[in-house]
Amino acid sequence: MHHGLALDLAHLPQLLKCVQDQATSFLDRVAERPVVPLAQPPQEVPLPERGVGARGGMRDFVERWEPALSASAGPRYLGFVTGGVTPAALAGDWLTAVADQNVMSSADDTGQRLEHETIAWLRELFGLTREHQGTFVSGATMSNTVGLAIGREWVGERLGVSVAEAGVAALGPVRVLSGSPHSSVPKGLSMLGLGREALASVPTLPGREAVDPMALEAALAQSDTPCIVVANAGTVNTGDFDDLRAVAALRGRYDFWLHVDAAFGAFAALSPAEAHLVEGLDLADSVCVDLHKWLNVPYDSAVQFTRRRDLQARVFQNAAAYLGPLGDVPDCVHLTPENSRRLRALAAWFTLRAYGREGYREIVERCIACARSLAASLEQIPELRLLAPARLNVVCFTLADDPTPARLAGLARELADQAFLTPTVYDGVPALRAAFSNWRTTDADVLTVIEALRAKFAATTAGPGSS
C-alpha cells in the first residue's frame, strides 16, 4: 500500500475529526459569510507528483478554495430554487460515502430496499398513489428527461412501434405541448432525439405562467397522432401552477402522455392551505420532483415517478450476463441511464425519518411566509416593482424605472454580501427572482434583504455629497 494511504488509514479517526471540525466551522459561519464572495477563485496548479496526505489536502483546500465558495447552504442564497442540507441529511450523506454502496443490482440489494422504502415515503408525502413507481436520479433535468423518454416510448406503443428497439426514426415527428416549460425540457428533447423543435409553446392565461386549458385543447385538437403534454407545478419565474385536473381531464377526448414538472411545486402538498395547487398531480403519467430543492438534501438528488414502469424498463433495460433479469420488480440498473450510482436515497431517508411530515410542513410553510413577506415589503419600495404575486415561494420583481439587464445585474452584485438573487426575464421584462426553499431561512433573513435594498436606494436618492 502506498505510504500516504497507509498513514491516512492509520490516523483515520483523527482525520475524520479534522473534517468534522472544519465542517462545523463552515456551517457555524454560513449565515454570516458573504453569500457570494467577490474574491476570485485561486489559480489552478499542476497535478503534484507527490501527494501531501489528507491533512495537507485539507490545509490547501481551506487556504485556497474555501474562502471563494458561496454560502449556498445558507439562509439567504435565494437564487435558482436551492435548498440547504438539514442536519439529518448531512449525517445520511456522510454515511452514504462511508458505506459506498452501488444500489443498481438486486445481487446486493439492501441499498435498493432502503430506496424502495424512501420512495414509498416520498410518494405519500406528495399525495401520489401506489400506481406511481419511483426511482432516484441526479436532478430535475434527468427526472424530466426520464419522464419524457417513457412518454416517447408510450407514443411509440400507441403507434405500434418500440422506439427503444427500432430507434426514434421509426416514430416520426412527435409534438410536445407546454405553457411555460423549464429549460430542461427542450434539453431533454434534444438528448432523446425528438429535437427542441418538437416543443410547441401553448398560450398561457393572461398575466400568468399557467397554461390556458382552452388553448391547450385547441392545440391538442390539431394533433392527429398521440403527443406529450408537459404541465407545470411551480414555474421558475413566479411559482405558478397549471390546473392539473383540467389538463388531465382533456385525456378523455385527446390522446396524450401527461408529464408534470413538479420539481419544487410538489411540496405544496404538505401545506393544507396550498395543497389545492397540486390537486390532480396523481393523474399524471410521469412526475418530476427535485429533492435537493425543498427536501434540503445534498446535491445531487431527485426522484422520478411513473405509472408505466414496464415502458420505463423497456427504454432503460441493460442486458449483461452479470446482471439479473428484468423480473416483475426491475433492478435500478434497468430504470435510468445510469449503470452505477451512490445510495442517494440514504440522505432523503435520514431527513424524512428525523423530521417527518410535520417537520417538512413547517419548512414549506415558513418558506412560503418568507416569500410573501418579501413581496409585501417590495411593494413599499417605490424604486422596485413586483411583477407577479408570490403564489408559493418565488418572488419576481424589477426596477420601477429603466429595468435593463445591466442595471439589474448591478443591483444583484451590490446585494451579493447579503443575498444571492438570479436574473430572469418575465413577460419580456428583465427582472430578479428570489426563491425560498432553505430550511434555515427565517423572517430575520427577509428583513436583512429588505434593509439592504432600502439602504441601497436611500443612498442613491441622497446622492454624492449629501449629509
UniProtKB/TrEMBL annotation:
Keyword presence, Lyase: yes
Protein keywords: Aminotransferase, Decarboxylase, Lyase, Pyridoxal phosphate, Transferase
Cleaved signal peptide residues: none
Biological-process GO terms, alphabetical: amino acid metabolic process; carboxylic acid metabolic process
InterPro entries named in the record: Aromatic_deC, PyrdxlP-dep_de-COase, PyrdxlP-dep_Trfase, PyrdxlP-dep_Trfase_major, PyrdxlP-dep_Trfase_small
Source organism superkingdom: Bacteria
Residues annotated with N6-(pyridoxal phosphate)lysine modification: 293
Cofactor names: pyridoxal 5'-phosphate
Keyword Transferase recorded: yes
SUPFAM superfamilies from the UniProt entry: PLP-dependent transferases
One Gene Ontology molecular-function label: pyridoxal phosphate binding
Pfam families per the UniProt record, alphabetical: Pyridoxal_deC (PF00282)
Family: Belongs to the group II decarboxylase family.
Protein's recorded name: Aspartate aminotransferase family protein
Organism in which the protein naturally occurs: Streptomyces marianii
Lineage: Bacteria, Bacillati, Actinomycetota, Actinomycetes, Kitasatosporales
